[in-house]
Amino acid sequence: MSADQMSVGELLAATVPMARTLKLEFLETTAERAVLRLPDQPEYHNHVGGPHAGAMFTLAESASGAIVVAAFGDRMDRAVPLAVKAEIAYRKLAMGEVTATATLGRPIADIVAELDAGGRPEFSVQVSIARADGAVTGEMEIVWTLRPHS
């Protein structure tokens, strides 16, 4: 299967080894929203029996990457998406499986217009991490850029 025939989830699982290692599940990947789940796996637990902070960070960052690929994948011949910085806040104890939901912070058209004008656009992606009962356990903001190929 070529990259053009793969879904966003399949593409990321094939190209990002950490997503495979954590067995992340790609539930929804569109240009408007990406939803990924981290199954409950004892080998990735912390000292209190829930998902390790590093695993939740990877889940959230992967959700942000999924929405970026869904939104800008058709422009990868012109630019490479790169995470610039990330900030995460752990709000409540996470236990069991957790789900990350990512949304873009700027309209796609504005980002593309900046790229088309020769710029290197930066934009944020907001991610909410929730337990199975819906309680938000963490929030992350990741700033991405589309770096034009030289």
UniProtKB/TrEMBL annotation:
CDD domains named in the record: PaaI_thioesterase
Pfam families: DUF4442 (PF14539)
Superkingdom as given in the UniProt entry: Bacteria
InterPro entries given in the database record: DUF4442, HotDog_dom_sf
Record's protein name: DUF4442 domain-containing protein
